[in-house]
């Protein structure tokens, strides 16, 4: 299966400076006019720069172009050229890399900033969110303002522009699942304000399609991981990696028998690109691998990949922790043609090596633009093309 080509479009990525958003930008910017709207509260401008790409060893499926070059400023406009990697890590001679990247430094809850960023777009990837479940528990209204109220502004703006919206939903909509794997028709009983907000957004997306004929697709991400995932809410894989690298104890919460479906960010990007072109709109889709891995196995996997001498220790389980999670991927496979490609072991290995070589991904040859306030000052840098690929691997089974 190959990803669809998204070419010559005007695209807005909200939260484009964040973990998943910045990978999407990287895939889109070579061949599209890409706008990023981000307040950089948790995202970073570094995520949109070449140096961070090369440092983190960003991995891309072989048909996902992964480079960007654009004049960047904090208001409007763009220019610059881009060179991307096409299938088999070679630029496609039929494609004219002609993309651009414009950063609007602002909040999705600011209608003016949103309008400015969305003017003339025909496609919106809505990734901006307050992703901390804990923060949503501490301050439900605050997270609701971003995750739901502001998201409705995005949907309304999309109506104005007649733009398709692909939005980030979450496995959090399901809460404690009744059965595995979790299908899209499973009971939705979120256990946190974050999950409630994502569920409401996911339902609004469907209803905007039904009521206003707006093409929307909600993608319910399972446990995402990959380069650039960092910070206090970044997830167990980056925490374990940090601990292993420092030869500090790897801390398992609870008995470690709980399981998750870990999906690599490059697969999430591919799911987004597929959602951007599908006819099957007005729907929500799981984005996972269909596999699950215990946290105990994960700890050992990370420790081995790093070659660390970290002891694996246990502490109290997280209150309200979900015991098991695994996506039913039949709908997304059937409707979007999506299948995860990156197995957990190779995904982790690539994080450890910073690029990974043996499996058929290509990392970008990239040029990137200027910092905010520095006009169009160009900063050019090349990263090597490094082939690697990934096949789904079975880490553990039900
Ligand atoms: C994920 C999402 C969250 C929400 C939720 C829905 C991430 C980062 N979070 O939360 O946004 O969608 O799914 O169900 O993807 N753990 C340890 N040691 C650590 C850290 C974590 O043992 O140092 C355990 C933790 O107790 C849990 C598992 O690892 O059992 C996964 O934790 P997580 O925070 O990475 O993700 P999760 O599934 O709680």
From TrEMBL:
Domain spans labelled NAD-dependent epimerase/dehydratase: 11-288
Polar residues composition-biased segments: 42-65
Region of interest called Disordered, as start-end residue ranges on this chain: 42-103, 308-328, 355-398
Ranges of biased composition (kind: Low complexity): 367-386
Compositionally biased region (Basic and acidic residues): 313-328
Composition skew (Acidic residues), residue ranges: 85-97
Designated name of the protein: NAD-dependent epimerase/dehydratase
